[in-house]
Design brief:
Order of helices and strands: HHHH
Bound molecules: zinc ion
Oligomer: single chain
Number of domains: 2
Shape: rod-shaped
Length: about 140
Amino acid sequence: MCVQCGKTIAPDANVCPYCGHDYRIQAGPPAKKKTVMPVIGGIMILVGGVLSLVAGIGLVASVGAFDSLMLVDVEGVDMLEDLMTACGIIFIILGLIGVLGGVFAIMRKHFGLAILGGVFALAGWFIPALIGLILVGVSKDEFE
Ligand SMILES: [Zn+2]
């Protein structure tokens, strides 16, 4: 049956003989529309991840530098150093996942990981990573 005029036609007909409705154009799913949104979003998430990574490495490195300057061990300082090192490691991990998420967003792959990376990249560069996250979120259909 023809979807346009409702008349009975051959199931393998390319064109409806009654109304001329062309079935060849309908063949196959329509191509995915690609926008630049996941790419821009991915770059913002990527930069957020890199900044978080740099902040984490800087924090850990500064603890190491500070430690080598200290001639005597002070208990309070040691605790502070441990806290800074722990924070630095957390920033490094968040940054790495942020970078990974940004790359996936640019490639339009692994939507879930791209979003996760975007959330983690908030630690490095809050507002741009948030915008990136929104851009990636609204272009979900473009992901494989
Ligand atoms: Zn027809």
